[in-house]
């Protein structure tokens, strides 16, 4: 079997059938779908049971509510496919030939460690955004030579659903999602980076990410969220990990993007004088990597206005940007 499609499910009764139907419509059929019910309280479980009964290629697992990380990990442990595809249950596919073309791309590139692709994003007002950075990487296959450029151009970012990953890479290197953390994708992606040698890019967009869904956990940032990101960042740039890696500069560039996230939300810490806040401010050297387009912009601003005003400006930008995303019309 070529693909295992892993889908965590929690309170998505309004979206789950669209998600599943979009996968089952794929012209390529050598795949299984693994649904993991993460203790859903709505009718999502009944929908899973219905599809499990009607389709032989659907595996249905249940667990107590432990979060998306545990659900993905449990799905990975029972997966049979050579490659893993992660899909969020409120998202959907909009190109029926995608799996078939990705299967062809895998064969053409001697079955690389991963396929990278870009998502499209649909906002509550119906606006769809697609960056199309994939077009710049269609001829490249050596991950180590390309990773810094991939990070800079937002083609290797902290998410699992824009990657098709060889299962043995994940299992053999024990690359699982950290349970109980917010933004667990950050550590998972950083760990994955260290194990990839070959890649290919699928240049068509086929994955629709539902941006700013009202009940989505990704829409809120708490102090615990920031502490989780801080701890993952500190571990990720630890001198031992960075100095022993051929990806030293790429790791710093990758984590610099998430450092900007901390700066942008620094005002959410209830005590602005804690050692954590002081340590975050002291890591401003990460801005000097200019490792992504966003980091480069923030670093240019920081060089002119200093750190404190940069933090203030980033927070104001966050508030304004959130408002615009929610309410701007096409």
How would you describe this structure to a colleague?
The model has no long low-confidence stretch (mean pLDDT about 95). This protein has 13 helices and 9 strands. The longest helix is centred in the C-terminal third of the chain and has 21 residues, at about 305-325. Strands 1, 2, 3, 4, 5, 6, 7, 8 and 9 form a 9-stranded mixed β-sheet that branches. Helix 5 (about 145-150) runs parallel beside helix 10 (about 250-265). The protein is globular. By secondary structure, it is an alpha/beta fold.
Query: From N to C, what is the helix and strand string?
Result: EHEHEHEEHEEHEHHEHHHHHH
Poorly predicted segments: none
CA-based shape: globular
The largest sheet is: 9 strands, mixed
Q: Helicity range of the residues?
A: 40-55%
Count helical runs. 13
The total of beta strands comes to: 9
Helical/strand content category: alpha/beta
